[in-house]
């Protein structure tokens, strides 16, 4: 046989990421969820560039209109267009969800990995700190942060300029990112810690230690990548959880400030008028629910793709 032909028959090299992507593509539900989520995100961020009405503009002659040609999803009691408010509100909800989750991800993964790897008294002290933070009332933390830093953020010229150029940015949102991320990382730290405690007993960690690799390299280059599947799955569950927290805070007046909106604040407004104007509740809740379902199903698909052995068990 020609040597060139034999070489062509040799299987091409692959990687963990490529194998995971191939397995994910076979999961129709996960791929459908990914497509749906990307569509909703693009609609929220790109839709306002295609002639959508100003979400803060009032039309007093068109108050509480059901869906029609002028207001595709209807209008609310001040005559503001529901479609534009949903799209701009979706920007706020998605930004808060992903940035706050990213903050909690960085803190929680690093903290949990270090505690699990070092172990002993250091691990015990670090976990007791987590327990103490769990006991603190979340709302009290947000109120303290808001009262302390809100005025200071308003005085920063860069943030004030961003507020003038954007319809969704508010300096207080930075406090929201920090406050939610400050609490949400606790569960992530516990999950990563338990995984690291199991992994650090494996042979590849002993081999890395025998080669003289630093603890930092072992943690961040060898241990954390091996818990990536669990991190991804929990991350996809954290985003909708953060979005729900944002909705609660907006209801209490600690989140998005009127006349701006988020999906949570729109659902609250719709719930107050669900009997007279049901479309105010149905459409924001539909966008919110589809986003949460798509993230949950996508998380399940990523778990199966990244850790096929665990999915079979």
Polypeptide structure, described:
This protein has 313 residues and is an all-alpha fold. 73% of the residues lie in helices and 0% in strands. It has helices spanning 3-9, 16-26, 28-46, 82-118, 120-135, 138-154, 157-165, 172-199, 203-210, 215-223, 228-251, 263-272, 279-306, 308-312. Helix 6 (138-154) crosses helix 8 (172-199) and helix 12 runs antiparallel to helix 13 (279-306). The longest helix has 37 residues, at 82-118. 35% of the residues are buried. Residues 5-11 have low confidence and may be disordered.
Topology of this structure?
Elements: H1 3-9, H2 16-26, H3 28-46, H4 82-118, H5 120-135, H6 138-154, H7 157-165, H8 172-199, H9 203-210, H10 215-223, H11 228-251, H12 263-272, H13 279-306, H14 308-312
Helix pairs in contact: 2-13, 3-4, 3-13, 4-5, 4-8, 4-11, 4-12, 4-13, 5-8, 6-8, 8-11, 9-10, 11-12, 11-13, 12-13
In short:
The protein has 14 helices and no strands. With 313 residues, it is mainly α.
Largest sheet: none
Structural class: mainly alpha
In round numbers, the mean pLDDT is 78
Our measurement of the CA-to-CA distance between the termini, rounded to an integer number of angstroms, reads: 43 Å
User: What's the shape?
Assistant: globular
Count of individual helical segments: 14
Low-confidence stretches: 5-11
Helices and strands, in order, run as HHHHHHHHHHHHHH
The rounded Rg comes to 24 Å
Q: Quick one: how many beta strands?
A: 0
- Assess the beta-strand content as a share of residues: under 5%
Percent helix = over 70%
């Amino acid at each position: 046989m020609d040597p060139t032909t034999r070489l062509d028959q040799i299987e091409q090299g692959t990687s963990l990421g490529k194998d995971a992507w191939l397995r994910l593509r076979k999961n129709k539900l996960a791929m459908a969820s990914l497509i749906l989520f990307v569509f909703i995100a693009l609609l929220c961020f790109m839709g306002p560039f295609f002639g959508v009405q100003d979400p803060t503009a009032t039309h007093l002659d068109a108050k509480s209109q059901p869906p029609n040609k002028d207001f595709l999803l209807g209008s609310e009691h001040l005559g503001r267009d529901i479609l534009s408010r949903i799209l701009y509100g979706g920007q706020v909800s998605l930004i808060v969800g992903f940035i706050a989750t990213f903050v909690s991800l960085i803190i929680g993964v690093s903290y949990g990995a270090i505690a699990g790897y070092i172990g002993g008294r250091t691990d015990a002290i670090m976990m007791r700190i987590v327990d103490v933070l769990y006991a603190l009332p979340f709302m009290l933390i947000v109120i303290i942060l808001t009262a302390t830093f809100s005025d200071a953020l308003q005085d920063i010229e860069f943030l004030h300029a961003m507020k003038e150029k954007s319809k969704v940015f508010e300096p207080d949102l930075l406090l929201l990112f920090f406050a939610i991320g400050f609490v949400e990382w606790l569960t992530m730290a516990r999950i990563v810690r338990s995984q690291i405690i199991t992994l650090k007993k494996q042979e590849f960690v002993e081999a890395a230690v025998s080669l003289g690799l630093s603890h930092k390299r072992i943690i961040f280059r060898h241990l954390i990548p091996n818990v990536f599947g669990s991190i991804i799955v929990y991350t996809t569950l954290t985003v909708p959880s953060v979005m729900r927290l944002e909705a609660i805070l907006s209801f209490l007046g600690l989140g998005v400030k009127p006349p701006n909106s988020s999906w949570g604040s729109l659902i609250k407004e719709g719930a107050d008028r669900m009997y007279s104007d049901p479309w105010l509740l149905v459409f924001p809740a539909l966008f919110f629910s589809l986003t949460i379902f798509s993230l949950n199903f996508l998380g399940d698909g990523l778990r199966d793709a990244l850790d096929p052995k665990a999915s079979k068990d």
